[in-house]
Predict the structure.
Amino acid sequence: MDDIRKNEVNLLTLPRSDVGLPMPKDEDDSGTGSQTNFPSLLLLQLPSKWKAEDLKDARFVIPKQQASLVVEHRETSFQLQRVETSNAVVLVAPGEHDSNSQQQQKRRKVTDKGVTLQLVQARLLHNGSGAFFLETKAVPLRLADLRSKLPVWDPYAGSDMKNAPTITTLGNALAKSRFEIITGLRQLQAMQLDDSRYCRLAEEPRLDVLDTVLATLVEAFPHFESEGLDVSQFLTSSRVRLPKVFQTDESVARILVTNCLETLTEENICENTTLRLDVRRVGAAVASRILTRQSVWEESLLLARWQTEMPGVETQVSTDWLRGHAVRLQEETKPKQQDAANTTNITTYYWKYLPAVELVETTEGSVVWDRLVRAKPEWTTATLEPYLDAWEHFTGQMPATVLRYAAVRFEGDLKIYHAR
């Protein structure tokens, strides 16, 4: 309980019916249920620094057994957990609490700054159970949960998206605010259909559209980095380059290309505007398409091919852009004889495609670690970071749930993770 002398009371009394919780029943000696001992009010803990007015547009959502509080104007949500305590109290204004019970007649007054409040024992869940209140706990949206709610659309197979969910549907199903759902959909690169329903695009058509967008940049918009991208012109130009199955429906073509562009920028996409693409994202997309053509690439060959296929003549590619998309492998250093008196060591580096987004699409830490060590036998903290960050963000689980399957050794101050 907050210090009442600071005039900060963080337990809010509200009707049980607002929360959507049914009135529990008490079993008497006859075995019949009775609700006479249970109050119609509950105590809700306000989040830190919040006031009751902050809940003006809040709603309670109970998708299963877990009650949640969603507050749209604060763009957040909370899980509600029952906390039982034997000494909870609730502050009420004098004269506003009518009770004939012997316990609640025993009140003591606390005076602060001329305001008189009465301390009343908290309402009981049932006889002898102790008092309780609903604790608000902020729980971030798990991208894995959101992804599981999105159907996969395969235009090549003619799949039907009539039942694809809306933002409201997803918000109610996952007990999250619209802002949290929209942010998650963007992170998952979900596709928005014309009527505001959302889905995921199947892998084969996704890659075909990405190839079309990159080819359009190379052929028609080589100076996108310095001049920006005219969205309307780009949509028109890219449509004729799409696979024929998409060219017959202008709205489908627009949706596919727009969705692909959203993965290459942080800006909102609107027609008749100039869009600034993120050159690092464009570069990573180009490199990813190259890396999938063979299992590993020697570094100098990859950089040469990457630079050749990169749209934008003023852009110099960098291996820093591959962070979270590919891993660098080191071949054993070999001595090379320069002359009779001198030798030099030659180290050859290779790159292997390993996208973090695809790697963490499981909730099993052991599976993720097996995939990591199969791709690269030894890892440092720095090289693991993008994959562990993606794992935590996608699943809501801590990196330790992956690293507990690893063995560790030290080379000086450097920690090396490897298979057991």
